[in-house]
Amino acid sequence: MGKKLKPKIHVRDSIVDFLLRTEKFLNSSQATDELQIQFRLEKLEAKWDEFEEVQCDIEGSEEHEENTEAHRQVRAEFEEKYFEVRAGLVGKLPRRTPAPTQNGSSSEPAGVHTYVRLPQINLPEFDGSFEKWLPFHNTFRALIDSSPELSGIQKFHYLRASLRGDALKLVDSYPMSEANYRVAWNGLVARFSNGYLLKKRHLNAMFEFPKIRKESAAGIHDVIDCFERNTKILDQLGEKTSGWGAMLTHLLVSKLDDVTQKHWEESVSNEVEPSFAILVDFLKKQTRVLDAVSVDQRMTTSSSQAASTGFKSRPAKVSVNSATGNKGPRCASCGDQHSIAQCTAFSKLPVDQRLQLTNSKRLCSNCLGRNHMARDCPSKFRCRTCSKN
Q1: Per-residue pLDDT at 118
Q2: Start-to-end Cα distance in the chain
Q3: 323-333 mean pLDDT
Q4: Do 354 and 289 share a domain, yes or no?
């Protein structure tokens, strides 16, 4: 084997090895993960292009002539195995119904289906905050650190791109290289996977949560989210918060407003030892009640404001003003000191001219009042002829 041809054959061998590993994955129990199958398909297609390029170089070399038949045999075997493996991977993906064309037929040939490329998964960012460490650690380890298809230098690039602040300063101290990725990752884990500090910070998040000043659904939602989030993380860190019982319940109650505390004490007066789960369930019911009451109050306020605005220019209001000597509203039609509903000149106008006038003056065509239109008119009275607005 010539010296010039040897490196190319090594590259070709590595591509063949990847194909064999993909075949092993295809026949394993792991070949049910749709995301993994899609990633391997993309990688397999790239390896096909690499194989074609290096194989053409080998076959075009002068040194190729002495082993022509052997190199052709490698190509034939690779192509046969490639199509077999690729078809197997595509066959494990769920079938997608192709979009119909304008004439109603499918846009794909019969018997052919494609895999759908999922949206790109963005890596989480980590800035050195202990409360963000566990989600970052678990996600990065699953997507990048545990991936057998990424080299150490690729993983190092992903790691640096995901870090900010103090965490990035720590990793930046290591030169970018294949070997240094593992050193940098282990250093990051050693720095932030401090169980004692993590537990302390999540405990402090609950102890330092401010007391709710006034009964509100939003305030109760916030305190529930805080306690549920931090107790779940503490459970992941090895603390059995389910055994904290009375202490956790008392801590959560101490963060509630006085009204909610009173409701809670009334609801558990017959309970021997109410649990944390019962308290959380009670608070969630309270938020549903408060949310419903809040909606009703907004609707009532809105209706009252609309009714007040709509009846300001009614005749009863005008007659009171006239009796007390105050100036009443000016007529939008003739300009005299009376409402347009009492205007003789307006009532004598043809219907189309009356509509034109009310539209130009932006008056309600139902009650002739200002500041609203007929569709929003709060008046219960309708046209005596057609019963419409």
Answers
A1: 61
A2: 97
A3: 61
A4: no
| In a domain? residue 107 | no
Please identify, among 65, 92, 119, the residue that sits at the C-terminal boundary of a domain.
Answer: 92
Q: Is the pLDDT of residue 313 over 60?
A: no
Spatial CB neighbours of 155, under 8 Å, sequence gap ≥ 6: 144, 145, 147, 181, 185
Are 340 and 370 within 8 A, CB to CB?
no
Q: Which of these three, 172, 193, 214, is where a domain ends? A: 193
Q: What is the pLDDT of residue 317?
A: 45
Q: Which of 22, 36, 46 is nearest to 121 (CA)?
A: 36
Q: Sign (positive/negative) of CA torsion 253, 256, 261, 264? A: negative
> In the prediction, which pLDDT does 102 show?
42
Q: Within this chain, do residues 292 and 364 fall inside the same structural domain, yes or no?
A: no
**Does the residue 21 lie in any domain?**
yes
Closest C-alpha to 155, from 145, 146, 163, 164 = 145
Average pLDDT, the chain: 77
Higher-confidence position of 211 and 362: 211
SS3 annotation, the chain: CCCCHHHHHHHHHHHHHHHHHHHHHHCCCCCCCHHHHHHHHHHHHHHHHHHHHHHHHHHHCHHHHHHHHHHHHHHHHHHHHHHHHHHHHHHHCCCCCCCECCCCCECCCCCCCCCCCCCCCCCCCECCCHHHHHHHHHHHHHHHHCCCCCCHHHHHHHHHHHECHHHHHHHHCCCCCHHHHHHHHHHHHHHHCCHHHHHHHHHHHHHCCCCCCCCCHHHHHHHHHHHHHHHHHHHHCCCCHHHCCHHHHHHHHHCCCHHHHHHHHHHCCCCCCCCHHHHHHHHHHHHHHHHHHHHHHHHHHHHHHHHHHHCCCCHHHHHHHHHHCCCCCCCCCCCCCCCHHHCHHHHHCCHHHHHHHHHHCCCCCCCCCCCCCHHHCCCCCCCCCCCCC
Check residues 92 and 107 and name the one with the higher pLDDT: 92
